[in-house]
Structure formats: C-alpha cells, structure tokens
Amino acid sequence: MTSQKFILRSELTTLKPYNAGLSLQDVAEKAAGKPIAKLASNENPYQMPNVIAEAMHQEIATAYRYPDPQGRALAKSIAEFCGCDAEQVILGNGSEDLLNILARTILRSGDEVVTLYPSFPLHEDYAIMMGAHVTRIGLVDHNKIDVDALVKAVSRPVRLTIFANPMNPTGLWLTADELDRVLAAQHPQSVLCIDEAYLEFASYQSDGQSYLPATERLKHHDKPLLVLRTFSKAYGLAGLRIGYGLTNNSTLRLGLDLVRTPFNANSVAQAGAVVALQNPAAIYPVLQQIVEQRQMLLTGLEALGLFVLPSLGNFLFFSTSEPATQIAEKLICEGVIVKPWKQAGYENWLRVSVGVEQENRQFLSALAGILTQNT
Ligand SMILES: *Cc1c(COP(=O)(O)O)cnc(C)c1O
C-alpha cells in the first residue's frame, strides 16, 4: 500500500486507532491452552437474560426489512422507563455512535471541550476529529474527582462538557450533591453530556444520595443536557450495538436526528432492548454478582499491596510499580486480558473488568505470581 498523508483532514493526523486490544485468537496462542479470562472491555460476563435473546430471535425473521428509523417502540419503552417523553429519546448504534453524532452535531474547529481525566478516549477523540480543543480536568491526589475545577469549567461558555458518571476508567463518581452543583453551575450556552454507561451498576442498591442518575434532573433542568445510556454493559448486549440519549433540548434533539444515519439502530437490537426494559429485574442477579465480585477483586488487589480506586462500575482501576503494558503482556501469557491504560500520566495503571468468580480468581493469582517474580 502507498501512504499519502495529505488525503486526510489534518485533524485526523494526531489520532491513534482505538485501543481495542488483542484478538481472542492471538491471546489463545500466547496463553498456550490456559483458559481465557477476558477482563478488558467491561462487558457483562454473563449471558443476557433469556427473554431478551428470545425476543431478538423472533425479530430476525423480519430483518430483511429496514428497522423503524424512529425506533418508536423502543423510544416509548425508554420514555416510560426513564419518566420522560419519547420525543426526548435518540437511539444510537451503541452509545459510541451517539458520541460521534454529538461531536458532528455541535462541534466546530476551535471549540473548547471539557472532560474529566483520565477519560474515556472517545470523549476526546471525536472532539479532536472536529478540530475542537480538549481541556482535561485531572484527579486530586490520583483518587478524587476535582469537583471544584469541574464546577468552574462548566460555568464558562465552553461548547461542550462531557464525562462519564461513574467515570471510565477510574470508576469514580459524582454524588447527588456534586452532580447538582455541576448542573447548577452549567453555562446556559454550553452543552453538558453525561455518559451513564455504568448507571445500572452504580444505582443498584444506591440510596439516591451517593449516586443519582442525571435523568432524575432532566425534566426541570433548563440548560442543554444530554444523558447517554447503553445496553452494552449491564444488559449484556455489547455485540448487538444499541444505546440511547435523552435530552431536554428540542434543538439539540433535532440536530442529532439530522446528523445520524436514518437506520443507525438495527431492528434486532431494538426488539431486544424493548424487552430488556420491560423486565428490569432480569438483570438484578447479575448486578448482585458483579457487585460482590467487585468487592472480592478489590480486597484481593489491596492484599497485593496495590493502590485501587473505589469504583461504582463493573471494573477497577489500579496502579502498579512497573509499566502497565508489561504487566498486561505477562497476564496474557496466563490467559488473562486486562486493559493497560495508555493516557499520559497513567502508564502504570491497569483497568480490570469484573468477570465471573473463576475469572477473577485466575486474574488475582496470575497477577500475584507476576508481582512476586518482580520482587
Ligand atoms: C462502554 C462504554 C460505552 C458503551 O458504548 P456502546 O457503544 O454503547 O457499547 C460508552 N461510554 C463509556 C464511558 C463506556 O465505558
């Protein structure tokens, strides 16, 4: 192949391909027969509830037709589930699709985008792709969200403030009071996007004070707010690609609708998602397992002397004394896939997703072995 850089828009030249990690086949070779524990992408390690799988199976029969471009049935279910109107809903081919749509809808060259750091890389990448500048708000003492700095940043007329709550990769979160401070401080001409990919884990058994879904404030909020959700994590539909956004702003809703491709949410995933929302309790056993196993992993990592951040997600973020990529390489030889973080200042940090108990134990014992070799 020949290479001709000038073909690309200059905004693309600083971007790197998404850090999706090795293929399962590559890992299987390196692991030489050991079982594989895939703990790198925050997927749900359990199969999706049967009712969802059955609904999708039925829908396949009519998949020779295009899906409903407005996703009316699903938008109605989402509206009922979230206590808002169907007109406030926008569907995405995963919520990553909506991140991309949002960037193309509102960002212009030279705009400022604020995010929490370390960040979900796509929150930054799509902004950069549009020529926007990203302002990062780092953690305090490596273990707390800098709420004061965030409040200050959103009060300026920046084009967009975007972050996940709970955050990925850290697992840290804003409490209800902190979220309210941010919402109150938001500049009226600035768009706020809160990515709630891990909402179900965070709100499971929550009292509403320690963690509050932003949708609880959507109805009475008078500045442009977009809340993103996904069926990829708690609902176990990562391979189906379905997510949604909820907004209080009809202009933003219209813009997102203009920019997306007309059939961006496929019919099979739409059908599965409707049933998922009709049976919210179907995922409770999974949430219970994940929360218990997250605690087990946390205790295990701390017993190895590692610094681990508190997390409300289905993952933990921890630091080690050697480069994360080296640890991750060695873990792969033990059949364990985790995510070495690659953003500046976090090269010694790894993110591990909560798997099933056996996978988590495999990870802890492999890591213990690697760390002892090093001492
Ligand atoms: C996993 C994740 C998503 C989900 O993306 P989908 O495209 O819905 O699979 C979105 N945002 C964050 C922060 C995530 O971690």
From TrEMBL:
Source organism, top-level taxon: Bacteria
GO biological process annotation, one example: L-histidine biosynthetic process
Modified residues (N6-(pyridoxal phosphate)lysine): K233
Single GO term (MF): pyridoxal phosphate binding
First-level EC class: transferase
Keyword Zinc-finger: no
Protein name: Histidinol-phosphate aminotransferase
Organism: Cohaesibacter celericrescens
